Amino acid sequence: MFGPMPTCYFLTAGRGEASTELNAFDAALLDAGVGDTNLIKMSSILPPGALEIEISPLKKGSFIPLAYGERTSNIHGEQISAAVAVGIPEDPLEAGLIMEFSHVGDPNSCETIARNMVMEGMEVIRKRSILEIKSISTSIEVTRVGAVFAAVVLCA
Question: Fewer CB atoms < 10 Å away: N or C end of the chain?
């Protein structure tokens, strides 16, 4: 194992605009509260028994494991959205599942798609009963270059 098993998580989302895609993405990360950290993108498994916590300030420069969806656009007037959903299994000894989704369109349909992906991944593919699905989404109507970001952040 490379580090401690994550025991908690939180959902966060942000959006931003700037003159370039990378700067807009950076603004979205700052809006979500993870902009001054080193993100480690992971596949989409929630460790068994992990507990949801309130969003808390992260230590600047720390390495943060997370699953995220994101999208950028430079098309004026376009609405872009990102969402994540996490499936909590009924059996606390089983792993949960995180799904990410982003698209051109509204945040409600984006979040619905992510939630449906969790249901299929848990109930159909893994044959695990779901206790609860938690989700978050965000969107922006682009005026310059826009970015959206939604994530499940894992912590020890």
Answer: N
Distances (CA, A) of 62 to 57, 73, 112, 116, 130: 11, 28, 32, 32, 32
Full-model pTM = 0.94
Catalytic residue among 70, 73, 100, 139: 100
Active site residue 74: no
The pLDDT, as a whole number, for residue 57 is 87
Domain count for the chain: 1
Position 134 in a domain: yes
Domain annotation covers residue 128: yes
Task: Kindly name the residue from 19, 38, 62, 74 that is annotated as catalytic.
Answer: 38
Active site includes 132?
A: no
Catalytic annotation present for 44? yes
In a domain, 125, yes or no: yes
